[in-house]
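G., before I forget:
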Amino acid sequence: MDNSIYFSKYEKYLKRVEDWLKQNFKVYECPEKVIYESMHYSLMAGGKRIRPVLSLAVAEMLSGDLDTVLPFACAIEMIHNYSLIHDDLPCMDDDDFRRGKPTNHKVFGEAIAVLAGDGLLNMAFETLLKEVARSHENSHLKAKAALLIAEAAGIKGMIGGQVLDMESENKTIGYDRLCDMHRKKTGALIKSSILAPAVLLGASSDTENALKIYADKIGLAFQIKDDILDYEGNSEIVGKPTGSDEKNRKSTFVTLLGMEEAKKLLEATVRQAKKVIEPFNNAEFLIKTAYYIAERDK
Amino acid sequence: MDNSIYFSKYEKYLKRVEDWLKQNFKVYECPEKVIYESMHYSLMAGGKRIRPVLSLAVAEMLSGDLDTVLPFACAIEMIHNYSLIHDDLPCMDDDDFRRGKPTNHKVFGEAIAVLAGDGLLNMAFETLLKEVARSHENSHLKAKAALLIAEAAGIKGMIGGQVLDMESENKTIGYDRLCDMHRKKTGALIKSSILAPAVLLGASSDTENALKIYADKIGLAFQIKDDILDYEGNSEIVGKPTGSDEKNRKSTFVTLLGMEEAKKLLEATVRQAKKVIEPFNNAEFLIKTAYYIAERDK
């Protein structure tokens, strides 16, 4: 798949996601309006939307209906955005910028930022439960997909990973611990964005297993690339200050392996992702996405 | 129903709740153990458990199976506890004590307290979705009940109410705005604890409507009593410093109506709750609970 076809497909998925979010999340005139504005500020700030885009791509590869998958894909995006708001708080990473804009608490204050994060997490589950409760048709598959997302976001997934990350600051951790941390902190939610559509569409267990490996590989690739960008990236393109890993004395793939080995591992990981997904019909977009993750400059 | 029968019934419900929580939430040995400990610290700190107790009482009044309702009741208790952890944060109410013990962030630090709150909210939805996904039997009713809880906890319910509360500090607000704030901040989740079992058990719309009014009334009574306790209560019995409303110049039922009128309103509200619920068979516990809410000293 050449670049122009890939990016036009990416744009197509992205537009579906943006349209769904716009239609389903509006700012209301009410005394508590500021919470809507604060959630809107973060949720509508753009970004790559890689998680929901992956969901739609998997759905299309499996010949599924994109409209069925969209609310699940967007719920995952809400969960991702809540986690960014809370991670950026002064008591957590204390970041002032995100995607080239002031972070949520810089604009709305800490209290509203905490509540906006809570609000987005809660809204994700309202979205999922609305889908499950909508009709009897496929409600069991919908419940299973929603549960899979909930578990990925929880303490055995993303939240646990964030704690591992905090516990690892200012100390040297080993490679296995680093992988475990990332598998939970970022990998779990990415994986859920790939597996939820497969569950929703009733895919075979062979298909699910292949997608699990693909998801693990691109999750790992995503994180190795993040670490590389924190060292080599241009902060204006990345949209946030680079060098923060070094400043916070974090163990990363770059500090543990060195830049050269980190890049080799990235390359090998992308190849493995490709290998497991290429037997599928119409896997070109997912293959290209693995490469895109490794080659992106932000 | 005399006091001793009432309290032994309350203890029976309470034990079911405590047992369920103990069985379903354990602290694991793992590098991220601190998040389990922090969630455990707040969730297992006791408290009245009025919400899940109400759920079980409604279930029993409707001759329903308590085991069906328990996970929903406990999910609501998780949501209640997450909201307490986040409300107590320095950037929110900045409270040092809760139920006579140091607040979560005082013990575990702010970052872990934010994540423990997130973890409990997420775990509530994992619990609900596990129930919905468990089997095909009644899964539609389960999904509807879970959605009702999610909406009560979200920005149109509890989170919106918390924002209204913050927006009302240091200014005088009217009676209607005060009621709207409490209906959302505490009323919505209490209401969900009463309605979720009715939905789960497939109650008639007449039953649901009566329970809605009962829930509104005891939610209001609960808040009026809270405001009275903040003025008249013994801080050692209440388990947190009293007089904070005055310190924070909050509009409350006491400041808006005066103590005498606030007490009259409390009495009238409890009578209305009784009136709507007494036509049901076996409503004694719920009637007594309305009175208990008005007479409690903590």
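The first strand of chain A starts at residue 97 and ends at 98. Chain A touches chain B through 53 residues (CB under 8 Å).

More on Monday.
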